[in-house]
Design brief:
single chain; 119 residues; alpha+beta; Tetrahydropterin Synthase, Chain A; elongated
Amino acid sequence: MYFVCVESDFAAAHFLTHYHGKCERLHGHNYRVRAYARGETLDEGGMLLDFGALKAALREVLAGLDHTLLNDEPFFKGDPSAERIAEFIFRGLAERLPEAPLAAVEVFETETSMARYEP
């Protein structure tokens, strides 16, 4: 099995409406995002997926989130948790790279706290 991974980041604000604690107040994160592809076969050039194509698609998805209030995005239903953000990014990548063997997206809110979405 082959895996490839690219990383990028974005900064955004959010608050969690169904959380009772400090995260229910408006705050921000410098998110780190990792996007993974997985497959058993390589193309004729020996690659599973071009790093450049995956990174460009990831940057495009993240540009729509960067320096925004994530609660304004209807997909998050008022609670832009790291889990929902990971799914949103995965879906955005799948739209941009429909033939890519996408496997997962990880979203880090801090260096030690991460959520992962795998379809």
